[in-house]
TrEMBL record:
Keyword Membrane: no
Location in or out of the cell: Cell projection, Cilium
Matches recorded under InterPro entries: WD40/YVTN_repeat-like_dom_sf, WD40_repeat_dom_sf, WD40_rpt, WD_repeat_EMAP
Protein name: Cilia- and flagella-associated protein 251
Keywords attached to this entry: Cell projection, Repeat, WD repeat
SUPFAM superfamilies assigned: Calcium-dependent phosphotriesterase, WD40 repeat-like
SMART domains membership: WD40 (SM00320)
Length: 836
């Protein structure tokens, strides 16, 4: 459905709303199409562009940089075409739940939706007939593609023509003839097929596997009897229809470009054809491939798309062109007079693929790419303020005031100014890629791919970058590095002291001391037992939030690192949180986050595990590579993996608050989690367990003791209660949950006792996000039995929790006796196989 980029166009309904897409899918053939108005001056850029960006189709107004989003695809768009009259458009994707959509461009409404085309595999290329009545698509499983023709103006969901591609060569392009809708041409890298689908009794498909010196890229009808194709070598082979109705290769026009021809565009029925290639040149030829005109001073990178506007009047058959390049530019190109070329930038896009994002106080988004390109994009004016190419791949960016710190894959740190000019010579801070940068005043800390942390001092006029020291204190990749300024009363430092910390996947948190001439490790502490840290962020009240691969969020004191709270979060995500940052709106704090796969979300902070206080949505069809938040907390920016788009999301925390109220207050959401069917028997069972814990606490063995039922139970009964509910914590987890409950009681001035509601919350937040199954236990036992029991004993002694020797002997003996092949132990005692 269409959504407008104008925030005032509709009332907000989601806590995170897509507001703007910066970028197009330049890897597509012809990703941008111009939609000229009937009264527009052909010499001026078109007012509207229609393009594919990630999994969204955009109607982009050039003048105001406004957008209308055509949303419906859950995967990256693989093909986009528009009708000759610019009234209709077709988009397609591939993968599970793939779609083929026909859009009305004026209204943005999906007029026709075809679910799961090509047996659910989706389409890779599409085209629309000259009369806009038919759509042709090619798709299917690898090596088993089919071609389908759809009469989209009817209610039918089945194609009017379908036929397997008689070749394992994947088809890269498909085009209707502009002269006969019954004629279609498609090609792969080494094959070309000519189709006539109107004869239902004997549909014609003639394939050619010509002995060409270079792979084909795309083919189209030059006229009713001739077909041309582009080649990677810059040649153009020509096929002609024979008198018998077949096709034969007539000739090859050599080296019309000196590089790969990416796009061919017919300009009129008289035979002009425009070509765009990797050399960055656009050339226009007649029927005989005699050069008519050319545009060779664009200097914007390899050409990936061409779209025709209206004739300019100087050459009645030569329209203006919108040229798209792989370097992220769309140009309006027109031949003004004689050999004068006017090339006006229409819009710029981010480089691909985007690897990192960072925001500056001046409402600019710093974008880094694997290609070495860095740009500053102003999200208020939606324009590119500065752009620069670096010799190395950019791996991370961070703002230092108005300056931009750039880390590269070769371990260099660059300090760039407001216009991305060098403020100092590049500094070598590592022998591996720089993965994280933290800045505080003149101090900068860099983590690299070898799990080391380097500290540099950036100051002076002119700016000097002085390396202070480098330490490798981790054995696994670093997930976060940050500075922390001590305040008066902190046990770990005096007011104003600057502390540096790093956290890595080895579960170790390291504190460093920064002196004038060196960096030293002050302390190193293991903060997790089994979970692997995946992200860290600072929140108010001088606290840190740590995310782990077990879908847990742990709140720790930023000064003493005492764990204050543990909750499960983002359980609906298939992968754990990999990035998060706090934002403040109104009088409340929130955390926005991204997972390792597709999702971004937000939760209200402090978060107690209530699922209605959190949300998530699919932001990109593939992995999210970078995220950032604006300094005012109003916008979230995300970039996907190779999808060519940076998305701007408006953060509306008030909507999340409204959703949380609708989801229920108090204990209602938690009781639903533990008893979703509202079964009275489950509620009674919970109460019985709680009362039994009171009996144990008060002494169930003495019949002379008068027992009283209370609303609370002692803390030492909590481990038994959560075990009775089905969660078996380790001794470390028991210690952690009791410490957290005791700390909360101490701060509230209450005794060390808990209610049934608190027990339910503890169980829900400490339980396993993915419960263990019997197969998991069987596999673990089978793996243990692959070695000797001596190996198992040594492993438990080294990595397991401390236990008495006799208990360890009992565990090892039990493992040795268990049989994972059937449900009976060797003694014949029925134990359910793994009940012990």
């Amino acid at each position: 459905m269409p959504t407008s980029a104008d925030p005032a166009s509709a009332k907000p309904t989601q806590p995170l709303e897509l507001e703007y897409l910066f970028g197009v899918s330049c890897q597509l053939a012809n990703p941008v199409h111009c939609i000229p108005g009937s009264d527009e001056d052909p010499a001026r850029p078109p007012s509207v562009l229609f393009c594919a960006s990630n999994n969204v189709v955009l109607k982009h107004a050039v003048a105001g940089m406004d957008q209308v989003h055509f949303q419906g695809h859950s995967h990256a768009i693989t093909a986009l075409c528009v009708s000759r009259d610019r009234k209709w458009a077709v988009s397609a994707d591939t993968g599970p739940e793939s779609l083929l959509l026909v859009w009305e461009i004026a209204t943005g409404m999906p007029i026709k939706t075809i679910f799961g085309p090509h047996n659910g595999h989706g389409a890779v290329v599409v085209d629309m007939s000259v009369d806009a009545k038919y759509v042709v698509s090619i798709g299917g499983a690898p090596g088993a593609q089919t071609i389908c023709v759809w009469e989209w103006t009817t209610l039918a969901q089945d194609p009017v023509f379908s036929m397997p591609i008689p070749s394992a060569d994947p088809q890269l392009s498909v085009k209707f003839s502009r002269f006969e809708s019954s004629q279609i041409v498609s090609n792969g890298t080494s094959t070309i097929f000519f189709w006539d689908w109107t004869n239902a009794d004997a549909p014609f498909a003639e394939g050619h596997d010509p002995p060409l010196k270079s792979p084909l890229t795309m083919a189209l009808y030059l006229n009713a009897t001739k077909v041309v194709a582009g080649m990677r070598a810059g040649d153009v082979p020509l096929w002609q229809r024979t008198k018998e109705g077949g096709w034969s290769q007539l000739k090859t026009f050599h080296h019309i470009h000196n590089s790969c021809i990416n796009v061919l565009l017919p300009l009129d029925k008289e035979g002009l054809i425009a070509t765009g290639a990797d050399d960055g040149f656009v050339r226009v030829f007649d029927h005989s491939f005699r050069l008519v005109t050319f545009f060779e001073k664009l200097k914007s990178g390899p050409i990936s798309g061409l779209s025709a506007g209206f004739p300019t009047g100087l050459l009645p058959t030569l329209p203006s062109l919108v040229v798209t390049t792989t370097h992220g530019r769309a140009l309006h190109v027109v031949r003004a007079s004689g050999k004068t070329t006017i090339a006006q930038p229409v819009v710029e896009f981010p480089p691909q693929p985007v690897t990192c994002l960072a925001t500056t106080p001046a409402s600019k988004l710093a974008i880094g790419a694997r290609s070495g390109n860095v740009l500053l994009w102003n999200w208020t004016t939606r324009t590119v303020d500065a752009r620069r190419d670096l010799p190395d791949s950019v791996t991370t960016v961070t703002a230092l005031g108005e300056r931009v710190l750039v880390g590269t894959d070769r371990g260099w740190l660059r300090v760039l100014g407001e216009n991305l000019e060098d403020m100092a010579d590049p500094a070598a801070v590592a022998s591996a890629a720089v993965t994280h940068i933290a800045a505080h005043g003149a101090w900068v800390a860099c983590a690299d791919g070898k799990a080391a942390v380097t500290v540099v001092h950036v100051d002076g006029d002119p700016v000097r970058v002085v390396r202070v020291g480098r330490i490798q204190a981790h054995s696994q990749p670093v997930v976060g590095v940050w500075f922390h300024e001590a305040r008066a009363g902190d046990a770990a430092g005096i007011d104003g002291d600057l502390r540096l910390f790093s956290l890595a996947r080895d579960r170790v948190l390291v504190e460093y001391a920064i002196t004038d001439g060196a960096v030293a490790v002050v302390s190193s502490r293991r903060i997790e037992q089994t979970g692997i840290p995946t992200a860290v962020c600072a929140v108010s009240a001088r606290q840190l939030v740590l995310a782990t691969d077990q879908w847990r969020l742990k709140t720790v004191n930023a000064d003493t690192f005492v764990c204050r709270d543990t909750v499960l979060a983002a359980l609906f995500a298939p992968t754990p949180i990999c990035w998060m940052q706090s934002v403040v709106q109104g009088k409340r704090e929130y955390i926005v986050y991204a997972t390792q796969d597709k999702l971004v979300g937000m939760l209200a902070w402090p978060y107690d595990g209530n699922p209605h206080c959190s949300m998530a949505l699919v932001a990109h069809p593939d992995k999210i590579t970078a995220s950032a938040v604006s300094p005012d907390g109003q916008y979230l920016f995300t970039a996907g993996n190779d999808d060519g788009a940076v998305k701007t999301w408006r953060i509306r925390a008030s909507v999340l608050d409204a959703h949380s109220v609708l989801g229920g207050t108090g204990m209602a959401p938690f009781r639903y989690l533990i008893n979703p069917t509202h079964d009275p028997a489950i509620t009674t069972h919970l109460e019985d367990l709680f009362y039994y814990a009171q009996l144990r606490e008060q002494g169930e063995a003495d019949p002379n003791v008068t027992l009283r039922l209370r609303e609370t139970v002692a803390l030492d009964q909590v481990p038994s209660l959560v075990r009775a509910l089905g969660y078996y914590p380790s001794e470390r987890d028991v210690e952690l949950m009791l410490n957290q409950l005791s700390l909360k009681a101490l701060e509230a001035g209450l005794p060390d006792r808990v209610t049934l509601d608190e027990v339910i919350k503890i169980f829900l937040n400490f339980r396993d996000a993915i419960p263990l199954t019997a197969d998991d236990v069987r596999n673990a036992i089978a793996r243990a039995k692959q070695g000797t029991m001596g190996d198992v004993r040594a492993f438990l002694q080294m990595y397991g929790e401390p236990m008495p020797g006799d208990e360890l002997d009992k565990v090892v003996h039990l493992l040795e006796e268990l049989n994972v092949d059937d449900d009976e132990s060797e003694g014949g005692d029925r134990r359910g196989g793994l009940a012990q």
